Amino acid sequence: MNSTTVAEASWRELLSRQYLPRLAIMALALWLHASNSMLTATTMPSAVDEIGGLNLLSWTFALYLAGSITAAASISLLVANLGLKTTMIRTAVVFSIGCVVVATAPNMPVLLVGRVLQGLGGGGLIALVYVSQDRFFPNHLVPRTIAFLSSVWMMASFSGPLIGGAFATAGEWRLAYWAFAVQGMLLIPAVHFLLKSTEPDLQPTAEPIPIVRLLLLSSAILLVSISGAYYHPLRSPVLILLGCMALVLFVLRDRSARRARMLPAEVADFSHAIGNGILGVLLLCISIMSFLVYGPLILIELYGLTPLQAGFIVLLESLAWGSAAIIFSGVRYEYEARLIRIGSALVLFGLIATAIVFPRGWLWGVVFAVLVLNGGFGMMWGFIIKRIIAAAAPEDKDRTSSLLPITQQTGFALGAALSGLIANLFGIGESPDLAETRLDDLRQVAFWLFAGFVPLACLGNLMVWRFVSGRVATSAVGGVSEGVEVRPAE
Description:
Growth Hormone, Chain: A, 17 helices, single chain, 73% helix, 3 domains, mainly alpha
């Protein structure tokens, strides 16, 4: 066991003159992605009223998601080719152009083009946040950095729908996207001036963009998204299966690629910490999506809440995640593995508790279960990120950093699609007929939407516990970021 001293993390160090400009840029980039994705939920109904295309409404979300994940997968190559600063500037330009296209769209097909560009820009920005966090901050500050960014995500989760709703209520939904286009353009001078002297002096390389692998990845996300958007009892499961097969094929092709790899080599190696950590995160992200997708509907119809009241309960998810990340961000190294184990166990416990209390009409029990479920994830998230990046070889740092948002968003996409399958098995569509005779069906949905994911959450716990057990390999000490000692968990 090594006895390397682990540096203590403090808010004062993180908010110092050395790190604050970089943190501000990362916060703005995260804000653009997170609040814009939330903005759509409250602006698209008004957009459909004006330009039509109700039958294509689900594609406004599916195409954004496909573009976002595809961009995140490409970021490590773009950074290698162009450098971090240039990549961030160009990504901000793409995001802003997408906002302008949506704001000026005369019809739904044009708006969908804008959503793809927004997804490419937003997904690129969130991946660059993770890459920047690894490049610009010592590893012992990662939990504090993630806690700060989680608070930004909380504000975006709260503000995005409100901003969109305010513009839509005033009959000016297009102005919401003009506002975000302006914010995206403001990121460009911020990056140019604030990152002028902070980017590491790395020599760009000329690696080709792997078109076939990107097509496989985007196809996987689109297939999964379509399965939930256009439910059919036979076709939807087949589409999910095909999407998962395309995702596995993407990983295998990338792993065997000799040039322009997009993922770290150990992503599918379950004898390595990265393989266990990534699979654990993927499974747990899949497991927690049910409440976000169907929670408001059940709260309104089964509990008699107003949409606003249901929205505030859903907001507790983000608040619990971010608050836990902030509270536990400063713990000492020797407690990190324990917090990761406890956090993953709380996710499983919260999932089981939600399955038990949600069908029974126990509102405060639901609130408690949601707080436990998402608080557990927030408790461990920063430390998982820290350890996954620390386990990467030096040449794979950027690939590993950009892999984290890919894993998170892919898990959310799969979780949303599987939630749709479970709900539709009981006849609950997007516009259900919830008369008194259907309340039993709704209670069944409220149970199985969470109980159905318990096996995946158990497997996710197993992978996360292996990740911190010390029985899986890590990279050489030379590949570990500053401030982290490589040793088995006690």
